[in-house]
Design a protein that fits this description.
35% of the residues lie in helices and 20% in strands. The protein is of the alpha/beta class and 495 residues long. The chain has 2 domains: 148 residues, Leucine Aminopeptidase, subunit E, domain 1 (3-Layer(aba) Sandwich); 315 residues, Zn peptidases (Aminopeptidase), CATH 3.40.630. The strands form 4 sheets. Strands 8, 9, 10, 11, 12, 15, 16, 17 and 19 form a 9-stranded mixed beta sheet that branches. Strands 1, 2, 3, 4, 5, 6 and 7 form a 7-stranded mixed beta sheet that branches. It is elongated and about 80 Å long. 53% of the residues are buried. The structure holds ligand BES, manganese (II) ion and zinc ion. The site of manganese (II) ion has 5 residues, from loops. Zinc ion (ZN) binds next to strand 11.
Amino acid sequence: MDYLLANTPLESLSTECLIVAVFNDIKLSPAAQNLDSLSNGVITDILQRGDIKGKVADTLLINYLPHAAFKRALLVGFGDADKLSAKTYREALNAAAKALKSSHISEAVCCLAEINLAGLNATWNARQIVESFDAALYQFNHCKSKPADKFSLTSLSLHDQSDSDAIQTGINQGIAIAQGVALAKRVSDLPGNICTPTYLADQALEIAAQHANLSAEILEEAEMQKLGMGSFLSVSRGSRQPAKLITLEYKGADADIQPIVFVGKGLTFDAGGISLKPSAGMDEMKYDMCGSAAVLGALQAAAQLQLPLNIVGIIPSSENMPDGDANKPGDIVTSMAGLTIEILNTDAEGRLILCDALTYAKKFNPDVVIDMATLTGACLVALGRVPSGLLGNDETLCNDLFNASETALDSIWRLPLWDEYQDQLKSNFADIANIGGRDAGTITAACFLSRFTKDYQWAHLDIAGTAWKSGDAKGATGRPVPLLVQYLLNRAATA
Ligand code: BES
Ligand code: MN
Ligand code: ZN
């Protein structure tokens, strides 16, 4: 899909479909007014007939226009112009993308960037348009013998005459984010027998090969053994697939600038191990690597945008399977940090691989470390499928992430990481237990990680409820790539 800038006057454009905004009470956006007068008042006529009210996410495709250069128009409702929020703007964009997706239109001109939103700018609008259309047009075709028909739409031009530079910047950012999201969705949607730790490692190498200042390094089990990653390796012992520790390093700033480090859980299949999961819905545990997919997507986007930052992505990747050599409940392992861990439930494996990756992160002298993981089912109980969970040991970092999530429309919500919860991880036999009982499962999981992140500013994103959708629309969402890239853009703006 091509996203282009169209900065000539509407009068001199021609297109298969012009996309314009309408509001409640028969109010027209500037482009809609322009179209109305160029086509003898057809738009006002249609609005007066009541065929479209202008409510948020209403759409109406006008298939014939008395204007030779515009074959069709898509009217998109944005509600009350003075009540428009970032969220409703995005909702309306999604509806526009959906309407075009089901048409035979191959090329369109979009006049939706001109809408004013309090506190936001044309760059943000353009970015959202690209992200919204690209998300709507995502198709997973890699495993179908006969791929579904491709969508007709292949080119979208964003029309704006006021600030071309701002729009072009937004298009570039939107493309980088959308491609990062699409990459994350693709590797996440791939099944566990294809997307193995080795496959993820190959993906990292491939992404790195595309940019001179992006490099990848893959550590094998023998090297992890030497580093003392007894916790991580205990999980992979139960699987025939060799574990990989993948590091992507992006160098966009001077060597002495401390990097932002992302750590992503890369469990390519989580059967639970000896604490086997129930069979119903177990297929969805192929998504237990969505954290790692987001790290790949965010690093690719950062490199595409050549952000003036140093960024490291660390992916511990393994399967969690039941096997004669797998962890058993009660086993005690020694982490790279030296802390011993009593494994009371082998299904709490994410923290076991993350803790060693978080210790490994120290080697990069990080400015901040942000991990993302499909860590706890309890996160769905606490927050549902709307925001990702946020926990951390640093106010500034947590606030920065929260602000980025609001801008990116990739929501997160903070849970407390108070000391009172740490008691739930007491073990009679080791330094720490890997589970904290039924209560506050998302918090105690983060408490476990917090024992390994004391030396740096750290935040944890529990994406168990947000990384994929279940049911008819089953599929990865690519979250939290938009949040991560927004955080990076914000950091780049102040670097
Ligand atoms: N990958 C799962 C968490 C998960 C479950 C994410 C369902 C999304 C949907 C994780 O490894 C896990 O199994 N966690 C256990 C922890 C428990 C044993 C303390 C859980 O949430 O049940
Ligand atoms: Mn598990
Ligand atoms: Zn898991």
